[in-house]
Amino acid sequence: MTTTPSARTFPASFVWGAATASYQIEGAVDEDGRGPSIWDTFAATPGKTLDGHSGAVAADHYHRTAEDIAIMKDLGLDAYRFSLAWPRIQPTGSGAFNQAGLDFYARLIDDLLEAGIDPVVTMYHWDLPQPLEDAGGWPARDTALRFGEYGRKVVETYGDRVKVWTTLNEPWCSSYLGYGSGVHAPGRTSDADALAAVHHLNLGHGLAGRAVREILGEGATLSLTLNLHVARPDDPTSAEDRDAARKIDALANRAFLNPVLDGYYPEDLLADTSAITDWSFVQDGDLEITHTGLDVLGVNFYSTQRVRRYTFEHEKTMADGHGASAATAWPGADDVEFLVQPGPYTAMGWNIDPSGMTELLVGLSKTYPELPLMITENGAAFDDVVSEDGRVHDVDRVSYVHRHLDAVGEAMEAGADVRGYFVWSLMDNYEWAYGYHRRFGIIRIDYDTLERIWKDSAYWYRELLRTDALPPVESAADLA
Ligand code: IFM
To answer: What is the CB neighbour count within 10 angstroms for residue 383?
Structure first.
């Protein structure tokens, strides 16, 4: 067995976790009073998800929380990041709350605490109650107001036991993929709606964030999780390519960072999108609400992008990279082309480039030196197989996580204040439009039996958590 020469170590205070999201793992979509969400509707619409897969059963976590918490405990997790299903808690997205839904998460939180695992709660990970979509969805201001009310309710309910509150997961996906390219629920395709959704998601964050601050005060940690893009100019010496990168940075990153951390929308974003909208949906006082500041920024990182100015002279390339392939998902950036990058690639077709992780974290810490960072998602889908020895030897996933954690360590050495890392994902789950055809878990789900099987990456992660040092990739197959 070969060994990796130097095992990078992490501080004892570093938070080790794993992440999931409600619609991706819970199943039980019709049980105990849960209302329909936009993902139920989208998945039931022919042609929207691969093989028509839906989250109706998923990993059946709703019925298997005890088993799953036992796995988390065995892994040695410090924290578990999960999301609350809004339609389980408030079936129509406004008005009455559903006690059975509230109770489900109360039990989950209590059981996690009992197991010595900190609950890190995301209020919204894409499962919008369908009635709110019917009333206009995120492009409508009312959805932000309703989210503020729902946020207040969950903080009031669980605030005595939950310290870390994340309002939204990846509002980039909710807005640009949900309302721009339409590859995610609810599947609408309007650039103007996508930009209105951006603002109303930011506003919703602000309203729910206020509830966290007002109800819990100093004791709480307010967070927002963003899938920030590292979009590099193809030719850094070309002003056109640098401008293409600037446009993507504005749409993907600063459209969320600036209103929340600085209290404004970037001028260049408003100018780039002026032919689409005048941003009059931003009302007086809104930016004071969005400007919550954050106690920790959640960073989801998977891959990088390479962009250049598109001259409309050849067929446009929109290479993949965490959703970046969707041509209409970039309002006001028709003249930006996403180039195919060198491999290797994951099963999502995303390029593996851990240097992007370091670049992103170091860049953030330079722009926001006082802002603690948390990696709230990082991981990879690969075509896992169960070997004859009954194990899943997912060395590619181990290598991916190893290399990205090494990149996190490098960023920390360069001064980035990174407080923890959550692997995506604890278990295989419903990968949105790809259904069950992509597996991100360190625990395998057998979708016929719903059996949980530890992959080599899970054993390797447990060893990492035990030692706070990166074990050699090659050791994973021998760990048990
Ligand atoms: O599965 C998703 C998750 O829901 C949000 N971040 C990216 C993951 C992989 O695509």
So the answer is: 11
